[in-house]
Amino acid sequence: MLLSHAFGLFTHPGQEWDSIRREHEHPTRLYVAYVLILAAIAPVCAYISTAHFGWSVGNDRLIKLTEISAVQLSVLTYAAMLVGVFALGYAINWMARTYGAKEEYVPSNGVALAAYSCTPLFLAGFALLYPVPWLNALVFLAAAGYGAWLMYDGLPIVMGIEKERAVMYGGALLTVALVILVSTRAGSVILWNMGLGPVFISS
């Protein structure tokens, strides 16, 4: 089962990457059985916390989002995560030949590497159930750091390249990931200006 890899990447990542490489799972099945499920954690938790729990500003004021606004933002976040993983997977495959790996016609290993490297970020979504901005930021920062290390660790195994090349390959991919992140932020600003921004209520 693909979801078993999520736990293996925290306990024995080297063996897990080798297993993922040998599976050579088709991107469609990987998306349906892994990414679609785990990527939903953060949007669902964010919806629950922002629409029903709220967060405190100052001493007494409790801020929440309206349910419609929370749903809209959660759906957009979910879509952005799915597109981001897909784009990163294709970037891994597209750069493969440059760094001595085999470029696949169907980028199974590239998408798998992107999806499984994002596992810590997917699971960090549970932290959103406790809507404290500084705590959420720390959790996601730690998750992003571990995700970057997982990608660096998995590149030579999954893509079949020397460890030395994985440093440059990983650096290029982190740059792509940052471009994707900035693009989603820019997209958020555009959508907010079109009337899809958050609507707050306070009590």
Automatic annotation (TrEMBL):
Q: Where are the transmembrane segments?
A: 31-55, 75-96, 108-128, 134-155, 167-192
Describe the location of the Yip1 domain by residue ranges: 7-183
Localization recorded for this chain is:
Membrane
Provide GO CC annotations from the record. Answer: membrane
The membrane topology noted for this protein in its Swiss-Prot or TrEMBL record is: Multi-pass membrane protein
Q: Which UniProt keywords apply?
A: Membrane, Transmembrane, Transmembrane helix
Chief localization: membrane
Q: Which InterPro entries match?
A: Yip1_dom
- Its name, as the record gives it, is Yip1 domain-containing protein
The scientific name of the source species is: Marinobacter fuscus
Source organism phylogeny = Bacteria, Pseudomonadati, Pseudomonadota, Gammaproteobacteria, Pseudomonadales
